[in-house]
Design brief:
This protein is mainly α and about 90 residues long. It has helices spanning about 1-5, 15-30, 40-45, 50-75, 80-85. The radius of gyration is 15 Å and the shape is globular.
Length: about 90
Amino acid sequence: MVQAIANGKLEEAGLSPAERALLDYVTKVTEAAYRTTNEDVQRLRDHGWTEPQIAEAVYITAMFAFFNRVADAFGIAPQGYLEMNEMTK
């Protein structure tokens, strides 16, 4: 599952419809948060996500965006964790 998600192959990750809806939402938050709508959030509620869970997903997404921008600004190279995981298989 992790490798499929890392490779951007969500259809191969074995996600539930609720998990897929959440990943689609946080992708939208990452790429264009200003385009999120009340309908997007309602779709998550309809899949069973609670308000605290939705908020936490937004906070975590925003936090990682912040960390990535700081790392990019300081020229910190990616650590290659996924690549290291592949070598141990």
